Structure formats: C-alpha cells, structure tokens
Write a sequence for this structure.
C-alpha cells in the first residue's frame, strides 16, 4: 500500500485483532526530528523579516513610524484536526473491466480520477457512490482513504471495506496549518488607525499540494487578512512560507478561521487603546463596507450591546467575511475559579445574500458555532519526534453538551446573490469569545486554544 500496511480479514473484529498483532519496523524518514517547539521557534524567527506581499496600500512602514501611538502583538494558532465523528473509510470493488467505489467523500470527481489512475481504467468505467459523510469539514475532500480501499481491492479482486480507527484518523489527518502572526498598528491623536501591518508565517495548503504559484502568495494562507475590510490609509499584509512537512488541508473556513481571529482581536486591541467602544470603533472604519457594517450593527443590537450584562459576565464582538457571506458574533462569557471559560450566549448575524432556506441558514450558523468553540476552547495538534501526540478524544476533546451556549441567529437578507453558509459561521466566533474575556478579565488571549493559565491574575 502507498500509505502503510493493510490487514485483510472477513470481519472487522478479525482485522482489528490482526492489526494489533502486527509488529512493523518503520523507516521514520527525514521528518522524525520535527517538534512543535521547533516549529514555533522557526516561525518566530521568520517573522522578523518581511514576507511576500499579499496586499499593499500606501506606505505602512512610514505611517507606523509617524503614528502618535504604535501597537504591536504576536498571535499564534496551532495545527487542528477535523475530527469527523465518522473516521475515514471507503469500500471498493475492482474487476478487470470496472471499479465501483462507495465513499463518504466531498470530492467524487477526485475519487473517480484517483480510482481510474490506480486501476488503469478509463474514468467512464469507474462508478462512485457518494454516501452520507459522518462529518466532512474539508477532510473528506482528500482521497488518501480512497487510495487505501482501491489498492487493497485491486490486490484481492473482491469487494473490500477499508476503515480507519480513531487513532489513525487523528494521527494521520490533513491538519489546518499552524501559523504565527506579527501585527502592528499606528493610531493618530484621535485614536483612528493610520497604519496596519500583518505578517503571517506558516505553511500554505495550495503550496504544499503543488497547486500554488512559484514565488507567489498562497491565497489560503492570507484569506481573512489580505481582504481587511477596515478603512486604513496604509496597509501591508505579508506571508512567509514555512513548511515542516506536517500534512495540511482545508479546514472549515480555511484561512479565515485563523486570520479573522488575529484581525478581530487586534482591532479590539486598537479600540481599547483608543479608549473607544469596540462596536463604534469598527463602525467608523466600515463606511466602504456596508454589508460588513450591517451584520456588525445587527449582532450588537440583538445582543443588547451597551446594556449591562448579567453579573460576572462580559460581552465581546467580532465580524468577518468569508466565502461570499458576512457574519458577526457577540459572545457573552464568564470565567470560573481556576480559569475555566463558560460561554453562555452567542448572538450571530449573517448576511449570506438571498437566504433561500432560512432554516438551513440557522442550522449552519449553529453548527459553525459548535465547531469554532471546540477549536477555541480545546483544539490543538502537537508534534513530537515527527509524530502527532494526540490520538483520541481524551487528548483532542470535542465540545460537550454541557458546554454548549444558547445560540441566536439573525438573518440580514440583503437581496444580494447567495453566498456560502458552511464556512462563514466559524471565523468570528473565537475572537468574539476572547474579546469578551478581555472585557471581563483584562487578559488578552493571543494564542489558541484558550488556557486557564492565560486568565490567571498577573
């Protein structure tokens, strides 16, 4: 097999027993020394130098130096696994004249092309039955599990169902890239931002897959950053490609899932440094982005922004564009003794253009909140000696029922062409939560997931 060793049996139980009996000696290859601390150090070093330009407006360096007040911060985000509830699996039957595949795939075309390549059959002789997914989130756009099934089925000549264990799934994913962010801003005497620098370091998904432009900027790495909606006179967004070979892939909302966290957190930092209300500060910079401003205002109004929150709680807000839609979130949070974060309420405003099916819009926003909160509160994939350290839900936990907040969804039907729904419900959740934590504790969260230690008194 291309990806490892397969155990073939007439039942799942027998296959698992055979797998447990295996003793494989692996050639660990050149990545055996890779570790998360080394990756983080290399990212930080790379951020000391300019990267490839993803957006340039005016002269950010000059404007930063001339600002009445300068701000600087570093944000870090980890690798993340998709953790679909149904681990990767695929069934295939290969004969001399045909190949039939049953797969929970987000990529039936790629599945067909892959099976055709492996079997030598023309694509017209490959039939793909797309089953229910058991969760996708971008992970099932890959075809590695399809390769496993087709290769084994080709060898045996009988229908073969290949399934991964949970440990296989978490340790051999295509992870959301880790990234390091250096951000700087300058404010004038009135507190208005005059310069913005965002330097991003990390791997690019398209670049790693050989689909990027040589020497260019990977759009997946800068989405949610290069399209900064705020009206700032001088802007510089840069990206440095730094890839340690950890497989990366598309994770729900892709680059915006991490870049919106950085942008909306740092905008919040600027608002507080200017002594201004975070909503008013953003609104003043969105005259050229009316749809962005619309969801910001709707979320704030529905969340009673400006009214005192319940005792022991605070609110935070964030807004982001991704995949053709605009979304804003207000999070209401508290912190228990010991630093445990509790998110009580999330208010979401979404402008996805024409809301064809409002119930589906609400469902996607609610699901996006679950996915985003899981990542913000728990998600982190770490590497030691070239190996992913997490193996199952004890070390890579999901959001539990008792942690789920009340979620309100308000649709701003702008009449514009329909935009996306599966992705836009994710990016602005985490910064809304961490901005609320700052309002409550005075502690600024600049790395995810949120750790109790980050909220302890200095």
């Amino acid at each position: 097999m291309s990806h490892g060793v397969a155990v073939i049996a007439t039942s799942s139980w027998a296959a698992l027993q055979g797998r447990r009996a295996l003793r494989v000696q692996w050639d660990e290859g050149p990545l055996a020394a890779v570790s998360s601390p080394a990756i983080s150090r290399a990212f930080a070093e790379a951020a000391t130098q300019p990267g490839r330009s993803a957006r340039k407006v005016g002269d950010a360096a000059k404007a930063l130096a001339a600002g009445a007040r300068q701000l600087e911060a570093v944000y870090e985000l980890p690798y993340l696994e998709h953790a679909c509830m149904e681990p990767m699996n695929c069934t295939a039957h290969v004969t001399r004249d045909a190949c039939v595949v049953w797969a929970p795939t987000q990529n039936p075309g790629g599945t067909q092309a892959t099976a055709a390549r492996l079997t030598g059959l023309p694509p017209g002789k490959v039939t793909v039955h797309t089953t229910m997914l058991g969760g996708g989130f971008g992970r099932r756009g890959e075809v590695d599990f399809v390769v496993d099934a087709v290769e084994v089925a080709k060898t045996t000549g009988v229908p073969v169902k290949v399934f991964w264990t949970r440990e296989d799934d978490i340790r051999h994913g295509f992870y959301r890239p880790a990234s390091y962010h250096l951000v700087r801003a300058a404010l004038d005497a009135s507190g208005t931002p005059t310069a913005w620098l965002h330097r991003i370091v990390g791997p690019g998904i398209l670049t790693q897959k050989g689909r990027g432009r040589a020497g260019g900027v990977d759009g997946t790495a800068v989405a949610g950053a290069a399209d900064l909606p705020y009206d700032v006179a001088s802007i510089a967004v840069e990206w440095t490609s730094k890839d340690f070979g950890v497989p990366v892939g598309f994770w729900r909302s892709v680059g915006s899932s991490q870049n919106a966290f950085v942008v909306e957190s740092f905008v919040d930092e600027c608002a507080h440094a200017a002594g201004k209300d975070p909503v008013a500060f953003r609104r003043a910079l969105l005259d050229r982005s009316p749809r962005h401003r619309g969801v910001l205002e709707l979320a704030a109004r529905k969340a009673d922004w400006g009214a005192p929150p319940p005792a022991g709680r605070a609110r935070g807000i964030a807004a982001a564009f991704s995949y053709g839609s605009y979304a804003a979130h207000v999070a209401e949070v508290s912190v228990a003794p010991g630093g445990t974060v509790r998110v009580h309420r999330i208010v979401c405003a979404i402008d996805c253009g024409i809301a064809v099916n409002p119930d589906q819009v609400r469902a996607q926003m609610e699901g996006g909140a679950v996915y985003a909160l899981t990542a913000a509160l728990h998600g982190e994939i770490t590497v030691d000696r070239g190996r992913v350290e997490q193996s199952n839900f004890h070390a890579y936990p999901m959001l539990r029922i008792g942690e789920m907040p009340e979620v309100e969804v308000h649709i701003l039907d702008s009449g514009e062409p329909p935009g996306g729904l599966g992705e836009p419900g994710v990016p602005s959740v985490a910064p809304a939560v961490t901005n609320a934590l700052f309002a409550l504790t005075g502690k600024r969260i600049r790395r995810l997931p949120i750790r109790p230690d980050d909220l302890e008194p200095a």
